[in-house]
Design a protein that fits this description.
about 350 residues; single chain; mainly alpha
């Protein structure tokens, strides 16, 4: 389902650009990391596969920054205080993330069963009911279960980050200084993440480890509404830059660069300067809209294409390039029905107390 050109003008196209590019890089990273297709292409283009494997995964930092921006915009759009009931907001976020994710896990398991005879190294050896339940609750890493699909950790962390930002805004809600207290708490936790939590790789199953990037995205939204925008951006850059001087981390350098780029693009948007127009804008809006569906559905396609490639066992290395291109294209096509029939209904669903609190 494409995005009508008439609806594009109301979108934040610069966010769609960032989401679209990040999603495509994540797909290419996984295509370069798993299976005989990647091994065949590596023999032909070793530098490209090595780059995609090493740096393609860093596109997650773009998702973190954009996610923080969108969450701040949704929870406190005016930059003043939390809007909405916290439990209802958290439940709706869980449904929007977990239902499509669970569907993707089941799809991956079905494809894993098909390809297991050919690619046993790419599929789980066994799947237990507690493991499935932990995935459905987005607690698989916390409870120590092996992930059943790629990117599962990110979906779980996204919910944790949303809950953490929601909690900070909830703490600030009753204060007369709520206009600045919420963003100030986000700034403090972002600094703690950059300077403390993110230095311990053993904490990467918890939100504080990633909150530096997420918090910078949230701050970019609020600073865009403030008369002290430039001063705030300088302070944010100094905190992140100092943390990078203390211990350089490429992923955080990318997060900072993304946040500053987002701040510049958002300023242009607020002044009515369009990044793209016409069909190019509609195409980017389409890719941005389907980025989460693509993120979820591409690994089952990767498994199927790799299994077919292994079965045919072509001798020419260019067959691997064709297979990788086919997997990339089919992943983008598969995202269309997944978005239409799974992600969209999940986003509209209201269950339990979310419905009663809105009554």
């Amino acid at each position: 389902m494409s995005v009508p050109i008439s609806a594009v003008s109301s979108r934040l196209l610069h966010l769609d650009v960032l989401k679209a590019v990040a999603a495509q890089l994540i797909v290419l990273h996984h295509l370069a990391a798993y299976g005989p297709v990647a091994e065949t292409v590596q023999a032909l283009w070793p530098a490209l596969i090595a780059w995609l494997y090493e740096y393609g995964r860093m596109a997650v930092q773009v998702f973190l920054v954009v996610g923080g921006f969108l969450t701040a915009r949704g929870l406190a759009p005016s930059g003043r205080r939390l809007e909405g009931a916290p439990l209802s907001l958290l439940w709706r976020r869980y449904l929007r993330l977990a239902l499509p994710f669970t569907a993707a896990v089941l799809l991956t398991l079905a494809c894993s069963a098909l390809v297991a005879p050919l690619l046993p190294e790419l599929v789980p050896a066994a799947v237990s009911a507690p493991q499935l339940l932990a995935h459905a609750l987005l607690l698989h890493d916390v409870l120590g279960h092996e992930a059943l699909t790629v990117g599962a950790w990110y979906v779980a962390i996204d919910l944790q980050l949303f809950a953490l930002l929601l909690a900070l805004l909830w703490l600030a809600r009753g204060s007369a200084a709520a206009r600045w207290l919420g963003p100030a708490l986000v700034l403090l936790l972002s600094a703690a993440s950059l300077w403390v939590f993110n230095l311990d790789a053993g904490q990467d199953i918890w939100a504080p480890y990633f909150f530096g990037a997420y918090g910078m995205g949230a701050l970019v939204h609020w600073l865009g509404l403030s008369r002290y925008r430039r001063l705030g951006l300088v302070l944010m850059t100094a905190l992140a830059g100092g943390a990078l001087v203390y211990e350089f981390r490429e992923r955080l350098a990318l997060a900072l660069a993304t946040a500053l780029l987002l701040a510049w693009l958002q300023q242009r948007h607020q002044h009515g300067l369009r990044l793209l127009r016409g069909r190019a804008a509609a195409a980017v809006a389409h890719l941005g809209t389907h980025s989460y569906a693509l993120f979820l559905v591409h690994f089952p396609i990767c498994l199927l294409v790799n299994a077919l490639f292994e079965h045919k066992d072509p001798e020419h290395p260019w067959a691997g390039v064709a297979a990788m291109a086919a997997a990339w294209a089919l992943s983008n096509l598969a995202a269309l029905p997944f978005y239409r029939w799974i992600e969209v209904p999940a986003g509209r669903l209201r269950l339990g107390w979310a419905r009663t609190q809105q009554a």
